[in-house]
């Protein structure tokens, strides 16, 4: 550990997209636009969920948490990426790298758990409609949201702690932020035991929630098919379709990145997959929930009309 601390006290070099210098200007403009849209879109969702009384329901309570998560999730990596794209200094300190890794893992783990909570909410709404308000009462909603955050940060603390104990060799990270698979590739001795423990933790945080969500939606599909009216079926599928689309986008990229063996992980492919779930997915979430949701669109128009009436 003494050699590790001395060797890496100056930090790491994030290679980023310097292998494709012709793409850097395009990526800087593209990412800047999408990051701005992410900030505006998710902030708008949070504001709408707080301002409109009709959105004071469990579904929109959890949606506001998801939007806040997406804001923090993308902000944990994108500013660093933009700095690297516009300059020649691609360095990050050892402490900064660990902090970024911890925060990124914590927020990603929290979102994994929160999506399960949102699936449970949809299950209660569709499969137990008469008891929905009794089941999803305010205290339970706050407890579930808090459990998602606490569970995510505890998981990140464990995984970051395990990585801190690993001896590393090399200063170059072939990525645009300190992501776990790239960090593990810097290990300079056999760390099979540590990696096995971390893989089990990733299965619990990524694969198990995905299974629980699919099980919830299997029950939801059965309940919806029993509804006789086509309008009732459309409404039930519409309420759940947005959440299911978000789940597929998030878990598809997470499973690709974190549940494949480290030896087969491609750093070049991993960079572009990471661009998708750190930049594209956070802006898609507010678009999916607004364009496919009449309640959110109605709340948005009310707020805009109110602002227009109050204007000069």
Automatic annotation (TrEMBL):
Single GO MF annotation: G protein-coupled receptor activity
Keyword annotations of the record: Cell membrane, G-protein coupled receptor, Membrane, Olfaction, Receptor, Sensory transduction, Transducer, Transmembrane, Transmembrane helix
Location of the G-protein coupled receptors family 1 profile domain: 41-289
Pfam families: 7tm_4 (PF13853)
CDD domains recorded: 7tmA_OR2B-like
Subcellular location, record wording: Cell membrane
UniProt membrane topology term: Multi-pass membrane protein
SUPFAM superfamilies with a match to the protein in the record: Family A G protein-coupled receptor-like (SSF81321)
InterPro entries associated with the record: GPCR_Rhodpsn, GPCR_Rhodpsn_7TM, Olfact_rcpt
Cellular component per GO, a single term: plasma membrane
Main location: membrane
Parts of the chain that traverse the membrane: 25-48, 60-81, 101-120, 140-158, 199-225, 237-259, 271-291
Family named by the database record: Belongs to the G-protein coupled receptor 1 family.
Protein name per UniProt: Olfactory receptor
Organism: Octodon degus (Degu)
């Amino acid at each position: 550990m003494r050699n590790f601390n001395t060797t890496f006290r100056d930090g790491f070099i994030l290679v980023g997209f310097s292998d494709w210098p012709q793409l850097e200007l395009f990526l800087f403009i593209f990412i800047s636009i999408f990051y701005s849209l992410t900030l505006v879109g998710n902030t708008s969702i949070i504001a709408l969920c707080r301002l409109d009384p009709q959105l004071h329901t469990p579904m929109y309570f959890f949606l506001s948490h998801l939007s806040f998560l997406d804001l923090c999730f993308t902000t944990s990596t994108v500013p660093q990426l933009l700095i690297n794209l516009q300059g020649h200094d691609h360095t990050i300190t050892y402490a900064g790298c660990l902090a970024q890794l911890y925060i990124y893992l914590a927020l990603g783990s929290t979102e994994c758990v929160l999506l399960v909570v949102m699936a449970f909410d949809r299950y209660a709404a569709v499969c137990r409609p008469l008891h929905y308000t009794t089941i999803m009462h305010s205290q339970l909603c706050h407890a579930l949201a808090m459990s998602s955050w606490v569970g995510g940060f505890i998981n990140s603390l464990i995984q970051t702690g395990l990585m801190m104990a690993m001896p590393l060799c090399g200063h170059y990270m072939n990525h645009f932020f300190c992501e776990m698979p790239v960090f593990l590739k810097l290990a300079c001795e056999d760390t099979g035991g540590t990696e096995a423990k971390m893989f089990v933790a990733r299965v619990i945080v990524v694969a198990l929630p995905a299974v629980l969500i699919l099980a919830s939606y299997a029950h939801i599909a059965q309940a919806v098919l029993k509804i006789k009216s086509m309008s009732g079926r459309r409404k039930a599928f519409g309420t759940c379709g947005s959440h299911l689309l978000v789940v597929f986008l998030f878990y598809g990229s997470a499973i690709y990145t974190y549940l494949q063996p480290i030896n087969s992980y491609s750093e070049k492919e991993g960079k572009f997959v990471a661009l998708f779930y750190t930049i594209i997915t956070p802006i898609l979430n507010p678009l999916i929930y607004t364009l496919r949701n009449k309640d959110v669109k109605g709340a948005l128009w009310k707020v805009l009309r109110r602002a227009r009436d109050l204007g000069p």
